[in-house]
Amino acid sequence: MVRDPVDNSSIITIERHILEEQAFHPKATGVLTNILYDLALAGKVIASKTSRAGLAEILGRTEDINIQGETVMKLDRFADLTISRLTDHTGRLAGLASEENAEFMPIPDKYPMGKYLLVFDPLDGSSNVDYNMPIGTIFGIYKRTGEDGPVSVSEFLQPGRKLVASGYIAYGTSTMFVYTAGHGVHGFTLDPHVGEFLLSHPDIKIPPAKYFSVNLGYQLYWSKGVQAYTEYLQGRGGGIKGLSLRYIGTLVSDFHRNLLAGGVFYYPADSKDPQLPTGKLRLLYEAAPLAFIAEQAGGYASDGLGPILDVKPSSLHHRTPLYIGNKDLVEKVEEFIRDLDSSGSL
Ligand code: AHG
């Protein structure tokens, strides 16, 4: 059969895909669908800026220090504002919480309130911006727990199990939007000529592990269990054939590669910074949204003791150790920690 050269029926746009996904939820009102569109649009806007970052003289630091004590990069500010401005007025959200801000942002009085809460890390890996390395955006969507009225901070402090949808946008050699709404993980690649995200990676399942990803520079500061686990991944002792090491230092990019190629990423608790005894990564903005993706792709995410998705944040900026990727490998670290780290501490 000769294919019709203008037959576009096999091209699935993100819009079509998300709409079809809505059919899984007979009672869906379309609001969640629209939030996902809004985020895809934000991804396009941020991607256009990141690819012109040098030209636009946006590189460099602002003078502000964010809640994490880090210098805020200009691109972080841009990404943060882009996401909040594209989502705060639509009547779909009841509030937003960003890794860049100490407090959550209620919906301004002049706009209608919705029933969902958006949590996001606007520009993950921003310290890589100056070196033309990949960066990303991570998001999670929860339903608010209160009925009406002003949102309280406690409504944001829900365990990842309650996520309605989550995803990330990877700004790499191409821009990808990857999300789950509880029916598998789907990846879309931005076609810059068409200006649309097109389905390129349907129903992603994590393949057998090829890589491990960790900042080995901090090895001295890890617990015995984590050190032994690292040796296990390297093939010492013969438990497995050693894996290859890949580490970018942008969680989205390290996670994305391992999701597609197979592997485990971890950022353990360590003793290098007494201010951060439980590791660097944030439960609400980074660990939980990616944990939902990992589980939907047949993988697993743990804090070293149990599922990340079961941990209830104690505050908006709760930090956690994170082990994420192939299920068997993540379960293995729990074993090492249980056996070698007497207190089972994080
Ligand atoms: P930042 O956004 O401040 O650059 O932090 C990035 C995060 C995460 O994306 C990455 O996995 C981790 O920090 C890297 O930390 P190290 O530099 O300590 O390895």
What does this protein structure show overall?
By secondary structure, the chain is of the alpha+beta class. The radius of gyration is 20 Å and the shape is globular. β7 and β8 form a beta hairpin. It has seven helices and 17 strands. The protein folds into two domains: 8-201, Fructose-1,6-Bisphosphatase, Chain A, domain 1; 211-340, 3-Layer(aba) Sandwich (D-Maltodextrin-Binding Protein, domain 2). Strands 4-3-5-6-7-8-9-10 form an eight-stranded mixed β-sheet, sandwiched between helices. The protein has a five-stranded mixed β-sheet with strand order 12-11-13-17-15, sandwiched between helices. The chain has helices spanning 14-22, 31-50, 74-87, 224-233, 251-261, 283-296, 327-340; strands spanning 61-65, 71-73, 93-98, 105-106, 116-124, 135-143, 165-171, 175-180, 185-191, 196-201, 211-213, 244-245, 263-267, 281-282, 300-302, 319-320, 322-325. It binds 2,5-anhydro-1,6-di-O-phosphono-D-glucitol (AHG).
